[in-house]
Design goal:
Radius of gyration: 17 Å
Order of helices and strands: EHEEHEHEHEHHEEEHH
CATH architecture of one domain: 3-Layer(aba) Sandwich
Structural class: alpha/beta
Oligomer: single chain
CATH superfamily of one domain: Ribokinase
Number of strands: 9
């Protein structure tokens, strides 16, 4: 019998960004650039551009469930990225899919605040997100604004990153990648914290700040790059490192380009690789 191959399959469960820089559009570009086959289950439509979000139209939970079942019953997945979930009922549908289809390698990007500062999530959804999805996710990837909303306090300094990670793990997460990009300074540090490892073994990823106004969709892109590398078979720490390299390249390649009047997109296609095959 001949061997059967398939593409590395990555599903994004997230909102649509009409400007193309974030949400499922950024996820699909990232999956393709990293040699994976991308699929979508859309949670919400947004009217937005580089200047901000002007409207959000949520997809009914029953139709989100139908999208998930259609993809998972037929094609299956090797990794999942979860983005904007705007209501508790939507969170519950995603938890149902993870359990029903025994989904592994799940990256949860708790999208709550857009790059422009617009709030994207209902208050009641935060507790549902923590309760239902933190324990089910392989890694949770909040930025500092999102960590502040989750913890009920701001994270203002690099010295507070590890403490914030510990408190996020205490909410039930198995691993946390806390992104420090909103702090000042010329060096940026993200911390990868694992619930089953002492803080001395946590990974600090530090690099120079890249001067660019084009940072729309950085969180979506990073989380989808992690999911892609997990789908390719990399362990979490290696997937995070590889995703960091990809997003830094995407920011650098897009820094000099003008798209719109506000925060423009990254250059997702700066170093594409062919679609890969898994045996």
């Amino acid at each position: 019998m001949s061997q059967t191959f398939h593409y590395p399959r990555v599903l994004t469960i997230a909102g649509s960004d009409s400007s193309g820089g974030a949400g499922i559009q950024a996820d699909l570009k990232t999956f393709s650039a990293l040699g994976c086959y991308g699929m979508t289950a859309i949670t919400a439509l947004t009217a937005q551009n580089t200047l901000g979000v002007s409207g959000i139209h949520g997809v009914p939970p029953a139709f989100l469930k139908a999208q998930l079942a259609a993809v998972l019953d037929d094609i299956g997945v090797d990794a999942v990225k979860i983005g904007m979930l705007h209501a508790p009922e939507v969170v519950e549908v995603v938890a149902w899919a993870i359990d029903t289809y025994r989904l592994e390698r799940v990256v949860l990007d708790p999208v709550m605040v857009a790059t422009s500062g617009d709030r994207l999530i209902e208050e009641a959804t935060v507790s549902a997100l923590v309760r239902e999805l933190f324990p089910r996710a392989t890694v949770v990837t909040p930025n500092l604004d999102e960590a502040g909303l989750l913890l009920g306090r701001p994270v203002r300094d690099e010295s507070e990153l590890e403490g914030a990670c510990a408190d996020l793990l205490a909410l039930g997460a198995r691993a946390v990648l806390l992104k420090g990009g909103h702090l000042g300074g010329d060096l940026l540090t993200d911390v990868l914290a694992l619930a089953d490892a002492p803080a001395a073994y946590w990974q600090h990823l530090t690099g120079p700040r890249i001067a660019s106004r084009n940072v729309h969709g950085t969180g979506c892109t990073l989380s989808s790059a992690i999911a892609a590398h997990l789908a390719l078979g990399h362990p979490l720490d290696e997937a995070v490192q590889a995703a960091h390299g990809y997003i830094r390249g995407a920011i650098e390649a897009g820094a000099g380009v003008r798209t719109g009047g506000g925060h423009g997109p990254l250059n997702h296609g700066h170093a594409p690789v062919p679609m890969r095959l898994l045996g």
